[in-house]
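FAQ: What does a multi-protein file look like?

Like this. Sequence, then tokens, then the next protein.
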Amino acid sequence: MKIAVLAFPNVQMLDLVGPIDVFAEAARQLGDPAAYTFEIVSAVEGPLVASNGMQITPDAMLQTSSADIDTLLIAGSSSVKLIEQDPAIREWLHRYARTVRRLASVCSGAMLLANAGLLDGKRVTTHWNETSRLSERFPSVHVEPDQIYVKDGNLYTSAGVTA
């Protein structure tokens, strides 16, 4: 199953590689290292510099991402505000939200899903620094600020440990 993670400049490395490591370990525990494959997707070309200064080379751009994504994860960062209104990201999220088995966000990545209208009427959580902003900007989203994670249908949101 393909796990795609949306990354962007100044992404929080823990939000990006943490979930990948969890799925990789699950595959190892299953005795099937190929159970999950991973694709880091970006809206910008070339290497990305994460919030800790490390460079990440995405596997694909929005336009070239795989069609067979099973789980789509949106990483977070305190810089998510800089890309929240990106129409290409919004369109990409809409296209894949209809076809993926699981849609998820880590921390403030929920803001990208909310801006795309994908959290309307849903129960969600996000990093504690973002819960008020998410509630105020998107009153149709049911924010549960004291939860570590929330599952609503095929949507998974997590509070994470970083902004």
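And here is the next protein:
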Amino acid sequence: MTGFVTDIEDTTLANDNFRQVVFTGFHSQLVLMCLQPGEDIGMEVHSSVDQFFRFEFGEGKVVLEGVEYVVKDGMAVVVPAGTNHNVINTSDTNKLKFYTIYSPANHRDGVVHQTKAIALADTSDEIDDFKT
């Protein structure tokens, strides 16, 4: 492993996949995400994974243990392990583009899920997610 260097804003804005793992290290993982208008990731909890979100385009909300927070370009959210959470694109017309850092990794290295439906059908991918 030699590291990973990119213009994260440009890389995130260019991504149209629901989920694209771009780097997996020993203790963390960088994943690009794009939610279609009205789409969400689904309520979930990672029992042993902390997660960081950075929003680059669009508007939405993040739900942490039932509390809703409005998010938009430039905002960040940290989700500690064990926290029920969801990310929701609240727009009827625009995509919500963001990246997330898992610590430790939560997905297979290099995985690309073009849509949420494909991601949900891939039962071999998620390491410790619980989706409700």
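Q: Is there any per-entry metadata?
A: Some entries carry free-text notes. For the entry above: Residues 37 and 56 are 15 Å apart (CA to CA).
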